Amino acid sequence: MAQAYKAETDSGGSEPERQGSRLRRLADGWRGDPGIWRRGLITAGTAVLIGLVMLLHAQIPNGVGNLGSLTETFLPWLGVFVPVLLVIAVVRKSATALIALVLPVAVWFSAFGGLITDKSGSGGDLTVATHNVNADNPDPSGTARDVAASGADIVALEELTASAVPTYEKALADTYKYHSVQGTVGVWSKYPLTGTKPVDIKLGWTRAMRTTVDTPKGQVAVYVAHLPSVRVKLDAGFTAGQRDDSADALGEAIGDEKLGRVVLLGDLNGTMNDRALNAVTSQLRSTQGAAGDGFGFSWPASFPMARIDQILVKGVEPVSSWTLPETGSDHLPVAASVDL
């Protein structure tokens, strides 16, 4: 027994020494190398540039190809370059690069660190969901059933075609007693709808609507919107002029709203970081940002890279927010629960 005990203690005591020896050798290798400050200057410069872009993205002009909005749409993804630069800095033994990496790490966590934690609660007086169903959806009936299975009290659908509307109406009829379709957007509700009307977002056809939902805890103004798509073109950059004009018109309509409780559901073709949506986002809170779990990316469904499908609220308290499983659309449905 004594020998066994001695063997165990000897083995346990030698492991820290071996680990300590490795660390000391690594530290000695760096400490004795005068080139650690000269190497990796390009890596350090890249790290500083990424940090400055994240920190000063609002100063990137939109005058050339809407470069500022394009950057802001995918801003969180700049963080993926940090681990790559970290590996390069370590391999190159560059102290300069390692110190420079402090800037993008600090800026990224300051801007997006709150999104990687789970802030969702339980319960809620009202559950809502929104989904761009895709005009070319091969299975509208299945998509409708999938969204209804979320348990939402109110469902908004965008990109509805005239030929597919009857299919959605039939599939959702058993769950939702009330509904209205205006142009290519629609709302289905378990509670009565009043004051339903299209909202003019300067397109010449209807892609937005407003209705009052009479919930058991009072009235809520519900807006459904599908802002114009944006394109990335080699000759024109990030073309979003029509989207931006529609966002301004939608923001004006929401600003004129008389009810204190407002919920906006829809595909805004832009993220909360995109300055072009400021007319809308400055008035409303994102349920994902306030009570979501993670980034909640919704597009494209096959590999979500951005949350352009939004649930924004005013006068109600977000409780939880999440994405739903993939349907036949190229977007993921998103849902949220709120307290009235």
UniProtKB/TrEMBL annotation:
It holds the Pfam family Exo_endo_phos. The keyword rRNA-binding does not apply. Gene3D superfamilies: Endonuclease/exonuclease/phosphatase. One of its GO terms (molecular function) is catalytic activity. Residues 1-24 are annotated as: Disordered. It comes from the Bacteria. Residues 129-331 form the Endonuclease/exonuclease/phosphatase domain. The chain crosses the membrane at residues 41-62, 74-91, 98-116. This is Membrane protein. Residues 15-24 have a biased composition (Basic and acidic residues). InterPro entries: Endo/exonu/phosph_ase_sf, Endo/exonuclease/phosphatase. Keywords: Membrane, Transmembrane, Transmembrane helix. It comes from Streptomyces alboflavus.
